[in-house]
Amino acid sequence: MSALTIVQVSDTHLSRKWAYFQDNWDAFLDCMHEERPDFIFVTGDMCFNGAKTPDDLAYTREQMARLPVPWRAIPGNHDIGDTPPDRRLKGPITAARRTRYRRQFGPDFWVEDLGGWRFIGLNAQLLESGLAAEKAQMAMLQDALASADDRSVALLIHKPLFLQNRDETGHALSRLWPRSRKRLLSLCEKYRVKLVASGHRHCYRSMRHGTTRLIWAPPTSFIDTRATGSGPRLTRRVGYIRYRFEGKRFSHEFVEPPRFINYDMRNWMAAHGSTTRLPPRPLPRGESERHQRLARQN
Ligand SMILES: [Fe+2]
Ligand SMILES: [Fe+2]
Questions:
Q1: In order of start, what are the domains of the chain with their CATH numbers?
Q2: Taking burial as the number of CB atoms within 10 A of a residue's CB, which of 43, 71, 145, 187 is the most buried?
């Protein structure tokens, strides 16, 4: 079986009206046109604030249409709202927000078989949300794992399982909550999941948990260099991940394209706590129409 090159891109935070992070996305698209991977996974926070601004979802969907190869996305808290009660941004995941997301991007949890691998995408914000779809997602996951046969398995989920160790307590929005983490970790062990790929933390990290490799994809949008407390071997720079899947093995690299600029939002975050509170900064006139013309040329 031939090797697969797959790219993971995360936390693009795109918007027509708050177009702060468009430049690295445009540079990323140029990279994809050049390297043409077999597939692209987008691991959430595609939108600047899709939970509150429906046009961010529509605009980001238009931007994804500019990708020159097949892709699939899972939602982040900025796309669909965070796990209730969402104390930070006060826009929790609801059935209505989920519907709005799915109208643009399709299912928020799914299975994609590529080569000898099974990739399972999950909606992190749905876990412990109390929404009816939470059970359906868990049933899909159990099913997808049990029927993987001799395929190797990778999970994609916006939030990391934990920051430092599996015993972390509390309901912080920075990672999965203890009950969901325990459940996912026991499934990882039972089914020998080889990779859990996430985003959300706006930094790159690669670590091992048992036989599972945990990879945090860097953002394309911005970093916050005030943050310190998430452990060693962590790189706070923008970029993306390039994987190579060959047989039952895989390797990865953290890619930092020369045209990517490391936007450090530390001053704004210190003053206002979230990029969603930035004032509007619309795309230049005619730019989104130009993007649509480019997408049609794909
Ligand atoms: Fe993000
Ligand atoms: Fe996030």
A1: 4-296 (3.60.21.10)
A2: 43
